[in-house]
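Methods — Computational structure assignment.
A single polypeptide chain was analysed. Its primary sequence is given first, followed by the predicted tertiary structure written as structure tokens.
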Amino acid sequence: MPIKIPDSLPACAVLESENIFVMTEHRAMHQDIRPLKLLILNLMPTKEQTEVQLLRQLSNTPLQIEVEFLRTISYESKNVSAEHLESFYVSLDDVKSKRYDGMIITGAPVENLEFEEVGYWDELRDIMKWTRTNVHSTFHICWGAQAGLYYHYGIKKYSLPKKLSGIYPHKILKPRSPLFRGIDDEFFAPHSRYTEVLAEDIRANPELELLAVSDEAGVFAVKSVDNRRIFITGHPEYDPETLALEYFRDVKKGLDVEVPKNYFEDDDPSKRPVCRWRAAAQLLYSNWLNYYVYQTTPYEISRVGE
């Protein structure tokens, strides 16, 4: 898929070096199709790294996608320059009158706080409320999934006794779900979190469907019965080295963390990570774009949310 992003976005050079089709704005303007409009609310502190990770996942279908990045204005990011945010990010006020075919809400390192204690919670609530009328399908990741489940459906999160970190096997509960089309009956995905949502809470809500779980990591994939919201509790977009960077960062801080499970070769952090989730992750994002966005969004984007 050609992804249409600003030519000067730093992620552009990284993606082109990986032989990923990045379409220039000039070429996109001369194609006689309507590109899907996608908005990414990037709550991760390492914003440029997350940009590359997500754009890579969105890059392998025949669809043309026009991507914008959204930020909160009630919290000042410390790990990215103000120039980068001003150049490539918009606020809710900038887009509140627009409609989007799809949206991604990322995770954030605020799991140990109650939702209402998060500094930008009120703004995030406004954004999630806005998606109900202005976004056709929203894909929530990790803490973003927990926040979305709590805001839209009152699903609580619970603290884990220790950080869940590693690559875990999962099983598909709804084999005919288009979200998992082409994915093996057992697949792997990264998790990195301190909290969880419970399968019994999901099953008790008639507006939600539980799609995939892990015996060790718990709930993985949930969707609303109207297909408007997807919730993924892991990080399928992670690069091969992301969990290693997190682990060594936590060790350097003196935190009591375990070696990520099923991740390093022989579970030895002195050895390289083994990437066993890339294919499933690519299909997951591609299936969402195809079956939950492209196949069902109105051709007239002004009709999104009707």
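Note: The first strand starts at residue 3 and ends at 4.
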